[in-house]
Amino acid sequence: MNPASPPPGSTADDPYQAERARLLRMFGEKLRAARERRELSQEALARLLDVHRTHIGALELGLRDPHLTMLLILADGLQVPPSALLEGLFVPRQRKAATHSKGGGGG
Prior knowledge:
Elements: H1 15-37, H2 42-49, H3 53-60, H4 67-78, H5 82-86
Helix pairs in contact: 2-3
């Protein structure tokens, strides 16, 4: 393998993962902006939400997916509607490949 090429399974090889990573980074930027508007540090927001500071950092860097419950908790803690953290984000066009095969036979 060429040392300059990305490792197999990296986001460069997988359009779904690349698009997902871009979406999570965009969400993280919106989260950081909302936190900074409230003049909160990552540590202060983490204490407010009863989560670890590294969780907030990972969300802001786009390394973690917030999932629905965390999205609602974040919005509540930042005193913004959840839509404020989603506004301007794109709907992913790529879909994850199915990991199971469709059963054949029967009828």
